[in-house]
Amino acid sequence: MWLRTLRLENFRNYETLELSLERGFNFFVGPNGSGKTSILEAVSYLAVARSLRGASDGEVVKWGASGFGVGGEVVVGESSRNVVLRYSKPGGKDVGVDGEALAKLSDLVGVLRVAWFCPEDTWITKGGPGARRKLVDLTLCQIDARYLAALTNYKRALKQRNEALLSWSPDEESDRIVEVWTERLVKYGSTVVAGRLALIPRFSEAVSRYQSAVAGEDELTLEYRSSVALGDGDGTGGDPAHDERAVAEFFRRALERKGEDERRRGFTLVGPHRDDLDVKLNGRTLRAFGSQGQHRTAAIALKLGEAAVLDVDGQGVVVLLDDILSELDERRAGSLVELVGTHGQALMTSTRSMPGDAERGGENTMFRVEAGEVRRK
User: Which ranges of the chain have pLDDT less than 50?
Assistant: First the structure.
């Protein structure tokens, strides 16, 4: 799976842009603010219908325009698919594949799979659990449509249940409303937790392998810490063998135990929105003691592991690397380039030249980016 062409219209600082990309490495070199990262951001729209930089749709519209368009040809094996996403400020987003409009934006997920690297990824290990849940969720959403639907429905149910708890009063009607949303929360939340538990062994194995390749002897492992999987609500972890039915039962029991406290505090205290991914270096939680260098290396191993999991069917994944070289020494930069190359296509931005022999060789292509103009070198 790789992106042969990319077309932009009124996206960030590009009025129009059409790029022909290669299957291997595509290096975009230029000064800060020249428009390099915008190219990667546009690719993320073709994969997940939103910016992986965290920007709103309105923020990526070129100044003075009423909307933007992103298009591209995605090659899978011997076939290809043409994807077009358009956004207008009054009308929102619509997506088409091979000339046919998709009924839902979520139907786009899986047509193109991407893994995004950036220097801020160190917050995956240094920050709170939200960043780690996001990493797991984004990975699963790109390979499992059922998980995406469950996660979306869980977030809606959680919002409604929290509103019901906030307005709860000691009467039968309030209890009935909370119970309605509790059942939906359990239904969708059990799918989310079971999906995460099933992913972690494969994810951890891949992350450990890449950690060894980049950093040597240090061992990096992952453990999913769930507030519901064991039914004890203490966050000590869960059994990957738990299926959705077992998780649902544990989840329901945990909610029952926390019921009085939830009604008093006005929000849901257990569920996948409260879970965490414990990243351990040599058996110790990295967040608690890791150095800056250890966090940086672990973040790279996590993102490489994400790419490996996304390439579950061997069709490839597009790896997006935004200014990673500025954070690495020459040896680790070279190792990263070599490892990323095993997953198919990569688009990398940098303000400096590529490490080692990366500028030469078979499928490596260089682009110079300056003031919103892209030239192939």
Answer: 231-238, 240-241, 357, 359-361
